[in-house]
Design goal:
single chain, mainly alpha, 9 helices, 67% helix, globular
Length: 191
């Protein structure tokens, strides 16, 4: 039995999705998760129906923004090359993304289905796994770290933002990064 042919994706649908993600990134980072969806649709130049054809609800939209940002971070990390120190660049960029997306942190905390976070988590681990391995091989970071620890690093980087204004988020991020980077470095055993 043959399967029905898939309909080709319309070019305007791809454009609309990209425009919605860009608008959502801007509006949600400025106004947080409670921002009006109508404002996002308007900023993207589409109607509310188009927004809902692409994203069932606010949570799905916010997660799509985060997933797109992590995919972009992965792409930018690859562009940095094979230098073992790229892992530190990756952590720094992840921290900056966390500060920019602080208004979206609540979506991760409030997702009812853990499966909904699986693509985001896997993308994050993929983005940092190769740089982590190179940094370990060069002796720049602890050998016991695993790609799954990148999720923990991301959690720690975003942990102190709740209720903080932009300046405080930046200060907390810088201090958290310093502590995390120190903790990632190899330790010499005391004799």
């Amino acid at each position: 039995m043959s399967r029905p042919a898939l309909k080709p994706v319309r070019k305007d649908a791809v454009h609309n999705r990209a425009a919605l993600l860009e608008a959502a990134r801007a509006v949600l980072s400025e106004q947080g998760l409670d921002a009006p969806l109508d404002l996002i649709a308007e900023k993207a130049g589409v109607g509310r129906g188009t927004l809902y054809r692409h994203f069932a609800d606010r949570t799905e939209l916010a997660l799509a923004v985060l997933e797109a940002d992590v995919a972009d971070l992965g792409r930018r990390t690859v562009e940095q090359g094979d230098d073992p120190a790229v892992f530190f660049w990756f952590v720094d960029q992840l921290a900056q993304d966390m500060v920019r997306n602080a208004g979206l942190a609540g979506v991760v905390r409030n997702v009812r289905s853990p499966d909904a976070l699986t693509p985001l988590r896997q993308s994050l681990m993929r983005a940092g796994a190769a740089p982590l391995k190179r940094a370990q091989a060069a002796g720049l970071v602890r050998g016991d770290l695993r790609p799954m620890d990148i999720r923990l690093i991301a959690t720690l980087l975003g942990a102190g933002f709740q209720g903080a204004d932009a300046a405080e988020r930046q200060a907390v991020s810088l201090r958290t990064r310093a502590i995390i980077l120190d903790g990632l470095r190899p330790r010499t055993e005391a004799v």
